[in-house]
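ok posting inputs for the flavin-adenine dinucleotide job
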Amino acid sequence: MYLFIHRKDLRVADLRAFDYLRSKDAEGIHLLIIDPALTAQGRLTSHSGRNFVGQAASLLHSYAKAGKELHVLYGDPVHVTEALLQSHPIDEVVVHADYTPYARSRDERLQQTVHRLGRRWISIADAPLADLEAFPAYTGRSEPYKVFTPFYRMWSSFIMQSYNPMGITTIHDLNTVREISGRVAVPFALPEQIASALGGTAAVEGSVKSALLLDRFVREHLAAYAASRDAFAEGHTSGLSRFLNTGAISARQAYEATEGLPGAETWLRQLAWRDFYLYQAMYHEDYFRYEHLSDLSALTDKHFGAWASGATGIPIIDAAMTQLNRTGELPNRLRMVTAMFLTKNLLCPFTLGEQHFRLNLSDYDNTLNRGGWLWCSSLGYDAAPYFRIMNPATQSQTHDPVGSYIRRWLPHLAHLSDKEIHQPLSGAIVDLKASRARAIDVYRSIAKQP
Ligand code: FAD
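and the output
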């Protein structure tokens, strides 16, 4: 008997672990563990927490629809797993790999427990589009890539070779594994608040919604993606990130739906950026430690509160932070503009902005969020050069000339003309030109550090 534990793979089709399980032809228990370490400090009710719960509810619904059972338990994953191994004739524990520092140390503890109890531990790569665990062997390099462009070249050739040109027909869904239902008698019941959140959420959230979004994006926006992706007032990107990050849809399913179509190349390049950051988390141990490696002591938290609450007096920054705080959404271009403004014009440490996004983005993902913040603050590998500082007013004017985004999120500015609406208000917390010059000086010395 096997134990399969869902983590960032909240779907029932196209799971690489199901391929493996089918080849074993054994019966098993399917489990989702709600880990208190990941739901503490208000994270369950944050935008990303609600996104996760919605998609977990949808996963439960998918199991029920297929006549199968998903057990949902609450507790430290090591304790829950240990209790199950001690009370059931399970001979192997199967998961998809996860590469954040927390996930790695949790999985190390899990693996030790599984081995101590004499069972097998099987961890299978699933989240990236390219199998990044096989990637170094494919490239033959002894050093991991640090720069995106050569990574992307090799990644593209890897993808071309590893995908079946007729589609990914060999990856299996829930109907092909022999999950067994029945009571799991261990004392890790869900707290009432989580149980009712799981029961009360609309079940169409996850795989169905992401499939509809993908279908509409391919039909209506893919062909023009390169030209329209930065037009943040229009919202013509896929909107798939929050589903990709919980695994409600796999990167392979997204690839299959777009491959070879006009516009797909630019869009797949974004999936390559996703893989590039996942790759860095896997192979560069400094990826989650940059704040300890660079001297950021010239930076301050002076203006952080004004930035976070959308009260800087720079209209596009305040509009963007208002959208983020209210909805959990923020287009990529505005993530870059607000992040550069915080770290460069306001000289705040990137970790403050990273933390604010962590609590407010619906699609929050530790690895991708860190990648974005490192890039914008000119730290890490292949980041923006330290002197690259986007001017928020110019960005707003270029990508939304009539200011409809600002008018939508800051209606008190709607009376301003198309020309005026992008400009800093009197009383803005910094002068854009002077703060830019100061940031270049400060970041020149940070960038020079080894
Ligand atoms: P599309 O334009 O349709 O792109 C398709 C997919 O490609 C996305 O769903 C995403 O998986 C991937 N992708 C797109 N842009 C990027 C990028 N710049 N880097 C890595 N992958 C990308 N993305 C997250 O998913 N979670 C985060 O926590 C996150 N934090 C970010 C923080 C900052 C400071 C910045 C600059 C970017 C961050 N991003 C993050 C990346 C990007 O902004 C979002 O993935 C994108 O806006 C999601 O919208 P979409 O699904 O419509 O993307």
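notes: The pocket of flavin-adenine dinucleotide is lined by residues 229, 237-241, 244-245, 270-271, 273-274, 277, 331-332, 335-336, 339, 357, 361, 363-365, 368-369, 371-373, 376 (CB under 6 Å). Residues 165-169 have pLDDT under 50 and may be disordered.
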